[in-house]
Amino acid sequence: MTPFGRRLRDLRAERGVTLTGMAEAIGVSPTYLSALENGKRGRPTWALVQRIIAYFNVIWDEAEDLQRLAELSHPKVVVDTAGLSPEATELANLLAKEIALMPPEAIAELLGRLKILRRRG
Length: 121
Description:
The protein is mostly helical. The chain has helices at about 5-15, 20-25, 30-35, 45-55, 60-70, 85-100, 105-120. The chain folds into 2 domains: about 5-70, lambda repressor-like DNA-binding domains (434 Repressor (Amino-terminal Domain)); about 85-120. Helix 1 (about 5-15) runs antiparallel to helix 5, helix 2 crosses helix 3 (about 30-35) and helix 4 runs antiparallel to helix 5. The radius of gyration is 17 Å and the shape is elongated. The two termini are about 30 Å apart. The mean pLDDT is about 90.
């Protein structure tokens, strides 16, 4: 599941909306919407995110958050380390190899550390 998919599912649950009803209202198939929620489809287009925002009639901050989550929700990431240090290439390759084996706590810890470093930088 992607961050966007999890938030979308949470919004539907909070508002008691069925997957089929929402899919029909925003003009996509229930199969596509399910795949989007489960991370089996790539990140949604800007236009689709806007339809979802309008469907839920969310406030401005939440709309920005949905757009940000959509941008961070590509389930098949490519990391280009050309021109970076050997350590950067090693990190990218190690993460690609190990992420599926990492426990959720380790992923949360690593993500938290990266976010702290990004804020400092």
